[in-house]
Amino acid sequence: MSKVKDLIEEFKACQLIKIFEFEVMDIKTNEKEWITFNIDQNCNYLTADPSEDIKREVVRWDGDFSLDSHLEALHEQCTSSIDESDDWEIIYEN
């Protein structure tokens, strides 16, 4: 079995809830809200579909990296999508 197929099988076998969740501030209303990205596997990609009108993020599976590395890269992309949004600001805990 290829390394990519091994990564996909490892992802599918994971029993955790496959989401990223961010506490955000709605810039227009100043209200706290949550944005979630549902994490899934689609062919040769790891995808993150947002709950709000934010760009869907995608990472291509690469057999040279671990599942954790792929998830970290996807998390960074989701964080950047929110940071680049005109509507939301991530609330970082001190």
Give a structural overview.
- This protein starts with a helix and ends with a strand.
- 31% of the residues lie in helices and 34% in strands.
- Strands 4-3-2-1-5 form a five-stranded antiparallel β-sheet.
- The protein has 94 residues and is α+β, with helices and mostly antiparallel strands.
Spell out the key features of this protein.
five-stranded antiparallel beta sheet, 94 residues, single chain, alpha+beta
Tell me the strand order in the biggest sheet: 4-3-2-1-5
Shape: elongated
**Average of pLDDT:** 93
SSE order in H/E notation? HEEEEHE
Low-confidence stretches: none
* Helical stretch tally: 2
Proportion of residues in β-strands: 25-35%
Structural class: alpha+beta
Which sheet architecture does the biggest sheet show?
5 strands, antiparallel
Regarding quaternary structure, how should these chains be classified? single chain
The number of strands is: 5
* N/C terminus separation: 45 Å
- Radius of gyration, whole Å: 15 Å
Relative helix content:
25-40%
Helices and strands, with pairings:
Layout: H1 3-13, E1 19-26, E2 32-42, E3 45-50, E4 57-60, H2 67-84, E5 88-90
Antiparallel strand pairs: 1-2, 1-5, 2-3, 3-4
Task: Summarize this entry quickly.
With 94 residues, the chain is α+β, with helices and mostly antiparallel strands. It has helices at residues 3-13, 67-84, and strands at residues 19-26, 32-42, 45-50, 57-60, 88-90. The chain has a 5-stranded antiparallel β-sheet.
